[in-house]
Design a protein that fits this description.
single chain; 291 residues; alpha+beta; Jelly Rolls; Arc Repressor Mutant, subunit A; 2 domains; 7-stranded antiparallel beta sheet; HTH_AraC; Homeodomain-like_sf; transcription regulation; DNA-binding; Transcriptional regulator, AraC family
Length: 291
């Protein structure tokens, strides 16, 4: 069977997890990548602790211990794969960012397409060789796209710094923004809630996130709006109001960054719930942690 020569996907899943379900401390001999579709998760990765939300991408290197607690019902797309040593130096830049927030439309489109490919069949043994090779290549493409985002620091569409690694002075501002997206958030209002001037807030966000506060607010409104489109049946107008935008401007933002109207986006990104799919005979399913 012909597979990609640099990356070989061993196993994939699109599993759902219940609130307060846990996966205990464990590690693997291969690489693991995860994309959070919905829910809220506490992840311990090595000695670091993260709170994962929809849109987060997690990259786990071999022999790195990790464990999970699912705070809300969650769905995760999970890859396990081997990488040829020739590819390792190329993707090395993303290893320093084990948790990323992905908002880039090209990346999410590839992730969605990968899951659609495995949904064509109940068992991976029924997937043809071309499809398996395509899944390998698309997974490698996603990794390379992440490398490009990291190298260009294009953080308006992908916030590359995990929340718990941010400087202490910017954390409460970000938390306030995330909790008040439906409000009329302005730079002036932020300056009244925190002991920072408008100029310093601009400087703080540019230094830590490489974007302005207004860009971050817009990014978070769009991210949350996309999440509501995918996982609720609220009307487009109700979603726009929830994220602090009017209906027309929300539609314009989605067209600009996703090249789709809200209805088109909702139709194309809803992912079906899937269970485990083994893509390689070399993968030993008994090595999987039990939740």
């Amino acid at each position: 069977m012909v597979r990609d020569s640099q990356l070989n996907v061993l196993w994939m899943s699109g599993r759902s997890y219940q609130p307060m379900q846990t996966i205990s401390h464990h590690k693997h001999q291969f690489y693991q990548a995860q994309y959070v579709v919905s829910g809220q998760i506490e992840l311990t990765l090595g000695h670091e602790h993260y709170k994962l939300v929809p849109g987060n991408w997690v990259l786990i290197t071999p022999d790195t211990p990790h464990e999970y607690t699912f705070l809300k019902q969650a769905q995760i797309i999970d890859w396990k794969f081997n990488i040829d040593p020739s590819l390792t130096p190329i993707i090395a830049p993303i290893f320093q960012y084990p948790v990323l927030k992905i908002g880039d439309s090209a990346i999410t489109m590839n992730i969605t397409y990968i899951l659609q490919l495995i949904q064509k069949s109940e068992w991976a043994t029924l997937l043809d060789a071309k499809t398996l090779a395509l899944i390998d290549s698309l997974t490698k493409t996603v990794l390379l796209q992440l490398v490009q985002l990291v190298s260009t620091q294009n953080i308006f569409t992908s916030t590359l710094i995990a929340h718990n690694t941010l400087p202490a002075e910017v954390k409460p501002v970000i938390t306030y923004i995330e909790q008040h997206l439906s409000d009329s958030l302005t730079l002036e209002e932020l300056a009244t809630h925190f002991p920072y001037s408008k100029a310093y807030l601009n400087q703080l966000f540019r230094r830590t996130l490489h974007i302005t506060p207004n860009q971050f607010i817009q990014q978070e409104r769009l991210r949350y709006g996309k999440q509501l489109l995918e996982h609720t049946d609220q009307t487009i107008e109700a979603i726009a109001n929830t994220v602090g935008l009017n209906n027309n401007y929300f539609s314009k933002l989605l067209l600009k960054y996703e090249q789709q109207t809200p209805r088109e986006y909702r139709r194309t990104v809803r992912l079906s719930h899937r269970q485990n799919v083994i893509l390689s005979d070399d993968f030993d399913v008994t090595t999987q942690p039990q939740s």
